[in-house]
Design goal:
Helix content: 10-25%
Number of strands: 11
Structural class: alpha+beta
Mean pLDDT: 85
Number of helices: 2
Distance between the termini: 71 Å
Low-confidence stretches: 5-25
Number of domains: 1
Shape: globular
Radius of gyration: 18 Å
CATH architecture: Sandwich
Length: about 140
C-alpha cells in the first residue's frame, strides 16, 4: 500500500511542473496590433539572453521576451532590435516555423526584419550568441525607410 502512495508523487509533480511552465508563459504580455496603429514606432526595452541554448540563435530566455498578435495581414511591418554584444532575434511564426536573425560585425548591434507579415501570433526571443545579457530596444514600425 505504501508503494502506491509513493507512486502517486510522480504524476503529481509532473502535473505541477506543467502548470508552472504554463503559468510562466502566460505572464508574457501579448501586444495586439492592427494595421494603421497610431503610435509609430512602438518601442520596448528589456534584457537579452537567457539560460536556454539554441543551435542557431545563441542563448535565449525560456519564455518569449514579447508576443505580438497581428489581427490582420500587414503589407509592411519592420521589427528592429538594437543591443550591444552579439544580439540575436528568434521569431517563432504562427505556423511554428522559427527564424533566427543575428547582428553582424557591420550592423553595430542592429537587427531588422522587414516585410509582409501574415495575421497571427509571433513569439519574439531576444538572445545573445555569447550568452551574455545586455539591454535592448525593440522597435515596431509600419513605415518603410
Amino acid at each position: 500500500m505504501k508503494l502506491n502512495n509513493h507512486w502517486m508523487v510522480v504524476p503529481t509533480v509532473l502535473a505541477l511542473m506543467a502548470t508552472a511552465t504554463t503559468a510562466t508563459y502566460s505572464k508574457v504580455p501579448v501586444l495586439e496590433l492592427n494595421p494603421g496603429f497610431n503610435t509609430d514606432p512602438l518601442t520596448f526595452t528589456g534584457q537579452s539572453g537567457g539560460q536556454r541554448q539554441t543551435k542557431d540563435c545563441g542563448k535565449i530566455a525560456a519564455t518569449p521576451n514579447h508576443v505580438i498578435k497581428l489581427s490582420n495581414d500587414f503589407k509592411y511591418l519592420r521589427l528592429s532590435v538594437q543591443s550591444s554584444g552579439q544580439p540575436t532575434l528568434l521569431i517563432q511564426e504562427p505556423s511554428g516555423r522559427r527564424i533566427c536573425i543575428s547582428a553582424d560585425s557591420l550592423s553595430g548591434g542592429m537587427i531588422e526584419s522587414p516585410g509582409y507579415w501574415n495575421q497571427g501570433s509571433y513569439s519574439l526571443y531576444i538572445g545573445d550568441r555569447t550568452g551574455s545579457s545586455n539591454p535592448y530596444t525593440l522597435s515596431i514600425t509600419q513605415k518603410p525607410r
